Amino acid sequence: MKNSWQERTELLLSDKIELLRSANVLVVGLGGVGAYAAEMVARAGVGRMTIVDGDVVSPTNINRQLVALQSTVGAAKADILAARLRDINPDLELTSLKIYVKDELTDELLDRERFDFVVDAIDTLAPKAALIEGALRRGFPLVSSMGAGAKTDPTRVEIKDISKTHHCPLAHMLRKRLHKMGIRKGFKAVFSAEQVREGAMILCEEQNKKSNVGTISYMPAVFGCAAASIVIRSLLGEMDE
C-alpha cells in the first residue's frame, strides 16, 4: 500500500492526517535542532517542505547533529537532509536551499510561497530576529528554538510564548532585539529553564558565529522534537494556547 509507512500515524490521527499531507512547512537552520525538527515533521507526514541552510558539516558537528557523520564532513547539510527526507517520504514535495538566510534573502525566502508554519532554528541573533519579524508580518505561524547549548537536563525544556522565556541568554538577547522591532509576544519558543553551565562558552571568529557553546548529544534533538510537536499539533488544531 502506497502510504503503508504512515499506518501508525493514521491509526493515531485518523482523517486528521490529511491536514498534515496538505500542509507546507519551512525549516530554516539544519544544525543540531533544525535537522531533527525537519525530520520529525517529515515523518509525521507533512506533504510540502522547504529546508534551508548554507552550511556544510564540520567534525565538531558530529557530537549532536543528525546530518553529521564521519562520512558527511564537508558535505552540504541541506543536501544530506534532503536525501534523508526523500528516502522517508518519496512523495514529499521538497525544496532544498543552500543559502544563509539574512538581509534581503529573508524576504525573498518568505515571499516564495505561503507557508503554513515556519520553524526558526537559526542560532545567530540578527538573521533570527529578521526571520521572526518577517514571518509574523506575513501572518505565518512560527516556532523558534532558543539555546540548547550549555545545558544537560532535558526535563527542564519548556514550550511557552517568547515573552515568558527565562534562564536562556539567547532568548534574553532575542527579546531585546525584537522589542526594538515592536514585537513582544506572539509565537512559541522552545527553551530550557536550566541554569547555563559555567565555562561552557568560548569566543571565536567564524562565519555567522561569535562564540562556541558546549553541547551534549541529546539536547538539540530534544529541542528539535519539541519544535516539531508544536508544528504538528498546531496544524492539527490541537495546540494549547
From TrEMBL:
<keyword id="KW-0472">Membrane</keyword>
<dbReference type="GO" id="GO:0008641">
    <property type="term" value="F:ubiquitin-like modifier activating enzyme activity"/>
</dbReference>
<dbReference type="InterPro" id="IPR000594">
    <property type="entry name" value="ThiF_NAD_FAD-bd"/>
</dbReference>
<feature type="transmembrane region" description="Helical">
    <location>
        <begin position="20"/>
        <end position="38"/>
    </location>
</feature>
<keyword id="KW-1133">Transmembrane helix</keyword>
<dbReference type="InterPro" id="IPR035985">
    <property type="entry name" value="Ubiquitin-activating_enz"/>
</dbReference>
<dbReference type="Pfam" id="PF00899">
    <property type="entry name" value="ThiF"/>
</dbReference>
<keyword id="KW-0812">Transmembrane</keyword>
<feature type="domain" description="THIF-type NAD/FAD binding fold">
    <location>
        <begin position="14"/>
        <end position="238"/>
    </location>
</feature>
<protein>
    <submittedName>
        <fullName>Molybdopterin biosynthesis protein MoeB</fullName>
    </submittedName>
</protein>
<dbReference type="GO" id="GO:0061503">
    <property type="term" value="F:tRNA threonylcarbamoyladenosine dehydratase"/>
</dbReference>
<dbReference type="GO" id="GO:0061504">
    <property type="term" value="P:cyclic threonylcarbamoyladenosine biosynthetic process"/>
</dbReference>
<dbReference type="InterPro" id="IPR045886">
    <property type="entry name" value="ThiF/MoeB/HesA"/>
</dbReference>
